[in-house]
Predict the structure.
Amino acid sequence: MIGEYVVIGLGRFGWAVATTLARQDQSVLAVDTDPAKVQAISVEVAAAVTCDTTDEAAIGELHLERATCVVVAIGVEHKDASILTTALLRQAGVPRIIGRATNDLHGRVLLAVGAHEIVNPEKEMGDRIARRLARPSLIEQIPLGDGADLAELEAPEAFVGRTLVELDVRRRFDASVVAIRRGGKVHSYVLGMGPLEAGDVLVVIGAPAALSRLAALA
Ligand code: ATP
């Protein structure tokens, strides 16, 4: 097996996925049509090959069906190639294909031809930055599925000096504080923490609207 993870398309997004996985000690095969990019990344990942993944015979030789996961990171300039590549990977029986969508229609097409998951890095980053601008106290927000998000937010000023029991966050905001980050340490026994201090960061689970209401207090 050449790589547990395969990243096809070494633009900025694919490059970041491949090298970050490699730095986390994951075995990565990086693939691109551009030999210069393949050569440049070869020192950072387990293996790198030049291949046009829309060529059925060429992609067949890589035996990508043995990979745990293939990320099709081909971007906006080559939508047709990302669709064809995804279809060929699915046909080959790759167990997990993550497709990079550049818009909603592209995403739906990738799912229709066989991607198991899609990501849209530009949209996700745009959403994230807009949320950060609109709610500066919201440090991080991760969707957990089923309408719930996990968020890290600075404790609102009005909470400082009061305990979570007094504040009754669960009932008043319909959100649960599951941990508190204070001075670089994460405390998961939140009810035993005593009054909140300025600079505390709350790790909270709740619906996005509930988290937004909490963040608006800051
Ligand atoms: P990014 O935003 O990630 O920088 P981009 O929008 O510039 O990417 P593209 O240039 O379309 O995206 O594609 C990213 C990479 O995918 C390029 O390095 C390109 O050479 C590679 N690529 C395109 N088509 C194929 C293909 N058929 N097989 C393998 N790699 C491909």
Observations:
- The first helix runs from residue 12 to 23.
- The two ends are 51 Å apart (CA to CA).
- The longest strand covers residues 138-145.
